[in-house]
Amino acid sequence: MATLLGIKLNKLIKKHAYLGGALPKLQQIAEELRYEYTAAIAAVNEAADQLAELGVKIEELSAIDLDDIRHIRAKPRTMNGEHGSVRRELVRVLKNSDQPMSSGELVQYMAEKFGYPLISVSDRTRAREMVRGPLNIFKKHGAVIRLPSIEGSKQGLWQWVHHTTDNQP
User: Fold this and answer.
1) pLDDT value, residue 36
2) Angle formed by the axes of helices 121-140 and 85-96, to 10°?
3) pTM here?
4) CA distance 144 to 160
5) Fewer CB within 10 Å, N or C, the chain?
6) CA angle 152-153-154, nearest 5°?
7) DSSP code of 68?
8) Are 142 and 162 in contact (CB under 8 A)?
9) How far apart are the first and last CA of the chain?
């Protein structure tokens, strides 16, 4: 028959064993975080130094009050691919298509090609905007035409007409 002292001792031994097993992993995590913290502090100091240097240069060249300069927070790219890759791929797809393509087909293709999520309404809206924006620019420069929609559909049909010669799409 187990005694109260034996049960308490067993719980303490078990807790000691689990903590002893967890400690090396916790030490490793702490070391990694210490490294990341040191790197983050170095980045903060570097940015602050560069900001101060730029402030001095701006003040030397003009009477602009630095507090009047609105700060901009850089946002990371939300879609895969390098700058201009969406436009290049749209041009390639439209040029190689034998017939006009609907906006929906282009969005679906680009979503698969670049890994756009299409799960939520905001995801689908973002993917549509990533395709629609360049299409409208191409249309403005005369590289594509928007054909009348298929009857009963709100989606536009797009067709490549020619490649412009003034370094546009």
Assistant:
1) 93
2) 70
3) 0.50
4) 4
5) N
6) 130
7) G
8) yes
9) 86
Q: State the DSSP string of 12-47.
A: HHHHHHHHHHHHHHHHHHHHHHHHHHHHHHHHHHHH
Task: Tell me the mean pLDDT per 10 residues along the chain, length 169.
Answer: 79 93 94 93 95 93 89 67 82 91 90 87 89 91 84 79 57
Q: How far apart are CA 26 and CA 30, in angstroms?
A: 6
Residues with Cβ within 8 Å of residue 160, at least 6 apart in sequence: 91, 94, 95, 97, 143, 144
H helix or E strand, kind and range, residue 80: none
Query: Which pLDDT score is estimated for 78?
Result: 57
pLDDT at 81: 62
Helices within the chain (DSSP H only): 4-61, 85-96, 103-114, 121-140
Distances (CA, A) of 27 to 32, 154, 166: 9, 59, 60
Quote the CA–CA distance of 142 and 63 in Å, as a whole number: 44
